[in-house]
Design brief:
Layout: H1 2-18, E1 21-27, H2 34-49, E2 54-60, H3 70-76, E3 81-84, H4 106-112, H5 114-126, E4 128-135, E5 140-144, E6 157-160, H6 165-170, E7 174-177, H7 183-188, E8 194-198, E9 213-219, E10 224-229, H8 230-235, H9 238-253, H10 257-271, E11 275-277, H11 281-302, H12 306-314
Parallel strand pairs: 1-2, 1-3, 6-7, 6-8, 9-11
Antiparallel strand pairs: 3-10, 4-10, 5-8, 5-9
Helix pairs in contact: 2-9, 5-12, 11-12
The structure holds benzoyl-formic acid (173).
Amino acid sequence: MKTLLLVAAAFAAGSVQAQETTLRVVSAFAENTQYVKNYEAFAKKLNAEGKGTLQLSFIGGPKAMPPFEVGNAVRTGVVDIAVTTGAFYTNIMPEADALKLTQIPATELRKNGGTELINKIWNEKANMQYLGRIIDFTPFHLYLTRKIDKPDLTGLKIRITPVYRDFFQALGATVVQTAPGEVYTALERGVVDGYGWPINGIFDLNWHEKTRFRVDPGFYNAEVSLIMNLDKWKALNAKQRDLLMKHVIALEAQNDSWKKVNEEDTRKQKEAGIQVITFDQVTAKQYYDKAYDVGWAGAIKASPTYGPQMRKLFSRNQ
Ligand code: 173
């Protein structure tokens, strides 16, 4: 008996030395979305290589945790990592929403100091380590159930998240914030006349059934990223961090694949009978420029220190 106990103790010590850490992951987006599918492929590769070192364990999507609570769960360490977007955790810090304003790819932000700045802010204000971006090259659009002939949303009720709030309000809309999971019902019941969403993904939750128009051009750059609790990040050893970041950077480097997804979804929208509303060239430029003007004005007002620094590193011609 005594020998057995000693053997058990030795095993326990051995497993501590081996230091396999399992990180708990949640997603603010539903499991059937492309965002989560890409995450799953990434986690599968990481877990295969990470046996004995690092494992990712997926807890669930919006049914496991409401999207707007995910940021706080990462901040406090209730979960270790999240697949989410900055718009969903502006309750932690307003800077989170500025990731939509990047005009240069995440791979370049790693080189120009952009990612470093993000991590300075995310560490300091949200107790988070920003790991990397899993969607890029993807504009947002306004989708409608009613036709407009100029960029004037007066009298229309539009579903938003913080991404679109200032812009759609500047265009005269009445706005209603909802999680993605509530959009279908809001459209079905006529509670809203439209919604903001990226160019891809409207088929995942069947919104095409309730969508008649898409307004072009798109604006901003849809952002979904992996964020991690800072204490948990610091508790990883070098080997675990390297493994995690190797896979995150590989995933980030695949963001080009979104261009194809976006082309495909644009085609599918057309096939589904969704009509495209366009404006004349001057009006279209005004619409697009207004999105950025209003977006940066909001970001700088909310964060007078970091707003201008982010603008400098995130913008193409600054
Ligand atoms: O519209 C949204 O819910 C939203 O803010 C978003 C952000 C990034 C990707 C997809 C949706």
